[in-house]
UniProtKB/TrEMBL annotation, chain A:
Protein name (database record): AzlD family protein
Species, as recorded: Mesorhizobium denitrificans
Keywords from the named record: Membrane, Transmembrane, Transmembrane helix
Pfam families for the chain: AzlD
Membrane spanning residue stretches: 6-26, 38-59, 65-93
UniProtKB/TrEMBL annotation, chain B:
GO biological process, one term: L-valine transmembrane transport
Pfam family of the protein (one): AzlC
Subcellular localization(s) per the UniProt record: Cell membrane
UniProt superkingdom: Bacteria
Keyword entries, A-Z: Cell membrane, Membrane, Transmembrane, Transmembrane helix, Transport
Residues passing through the membrane, by range: 26-45, 78-96, 139-164, 170-188, 195-214, 220-238
Family of the protein in this entry: Belongs to the AzlC family.
InterPro entries xrefs: Brnchd-chn_aa_trnsp_permease (IPR011606)
Protein name: Branched-chain amino acid ABC transporter permease
């Protein structure tokens, strides 16, 4: 097997380790303190926000409009509606303005 | 679809209907992620990988952002261990996911847990978290969603690797900004949780600062850490929605 395949295998093992690692560490404890519990409940909003926020730094007016529209749609509709609306607004603005 | 779920909620549903419901949950994810899988396949070929390499990477690593970083590095002459370390760094946020979601997998047999962690992607985590908030998460439902995402991710990778030259200008079809829009939708889905707004503000600002001064991909872990520390230090009794 060539080097590329070995790099991919090592990367896959490293990735699986991240996907199971947090659980392996936590499962060593019998009980979970309420504060740790609160911290774990914060994980979705805390992590997923960081996948959005930095893109705002490079966003121009078109991207800002798309993301604000998508955010407003998300208040009422499901994720599919908000995603398609946001994507359409962005594509239209980028191609026609 | 939501009305149907509400009426069926009190009774336990069969594994098959859970599996199919999970697969339905995967549809928006497949729509949002397929362009990236196609782009990944195409870029992998540009960077000297074979279609088999690209498919093999999607099948084993199964993490979009890290795969993009990986093939970017393959294109240059970079030490193998540095490529593996970079992919590890991009995927480091999953440590937090598995710490948070592990509580809700504990009642499954070990092989199901092992498989579930392999399938633990960003949207999978988000869906499982919001269901775990209401009730026990059935494995059939989780697996239905995960398998559907996995199959389409790999098919789209192969399509990109084989026919990648046909894709239009990524900027014109908004590809660089589709994922932020999608993840914003997931973040909005958690807006009823305790401390949501303070968490989003603190993690968001911290990740932007870290992005500027430390750089990618560390802004993800550092920004998330800021929000998690906030949840840790505010007394649990005052954390109301």
């Amino acid at each position: 097997m060539n080097e590329t395949i070995w790099i991919i295998i090592a990367s896959a093992i490293a990735t699986y380790f991240t996907r199971v690692g947090g659980h392996l560490v936590l499962s060593r404890f019998e009980t979970i303190h309420p504060r740790i519990e609160a911290a774990l409940n914060a994980v979705p909003a805390a992590v997923l926000t960081t996948l959005v926020a930095p893109s705002l730094l490079s966003a121009g007016p078109r991207e800002m409009i798309a993301i604000v529209v998508a955010g407003l749609v998300a208040l009422r509709g499901g994720i599919m509606t908000m995603f398609i609306t946001g994507a359409l607004v962005l594509i239209l603005l980028r191609n026609f303005t | 679809m939501s009305a149907e779920i509400i009426t069926q909620l009190p009774a336990r549903r069969s594994s098959l209907s859970e599996f199919l419901d999970g697969a339905r949950r995967a549809i928006p994810v497949v729509v949002a992620s397929s362009p990236f899988a196609v782009l990944f396949g195409a870029l992998a070929i540009d960077n000297g990988l074979t279609p088999f390499d690209a498919l093999f990477m999607s099948m084993t690593v199964f993490g979009g952002a890290s795969q993009m970083v990986g093939i970017e590095l393959f294109g240059h002459k970079i030490a193998p261990w540095l490529i593996v370390l970079s992919i590890f760094a991009v995927n480091f946020r999953h440590v937090l996911y598995s710490a948070a979601i592990g509580r809700h997998f504990a009642h499954w047999p070990l092989w199901q847990q092992a498989l579930a962690y392999f399938l633990l992607t960003d949207p999978q985590f988000a869906e499982a978290e919001s269901r775990a908030q209401r009730e026990r998460v059935p494995f059939a439902w989780y697996f239905g969603m995960g398998l559907c995402i996995y199959v389409f991710w790999n098919m789209a990778t192969l399509a990109g690797a084989l026919f990648g030259r046909l894709i239009p200008d990524p900027h014109a079809i908004g590809l660089d900004f589709l994922l932020p829009i999608y993840f914003l939708g997931i973040v909005m889905g958690f807006r009823k949780r305790p401390m949501w707004l303070p968490l989003v503000l603190v993690s968001g600002v911290a990740s932007m600062i870290a992005y500027k001064f430390v750089g990618s991909p560390w802004h993800v872990s550092l920004g998330a850490l800021a929000g998690i520390i906030l949840a840790l230090i505010v007394p649990p009794s005052s954390q109301k929605a």
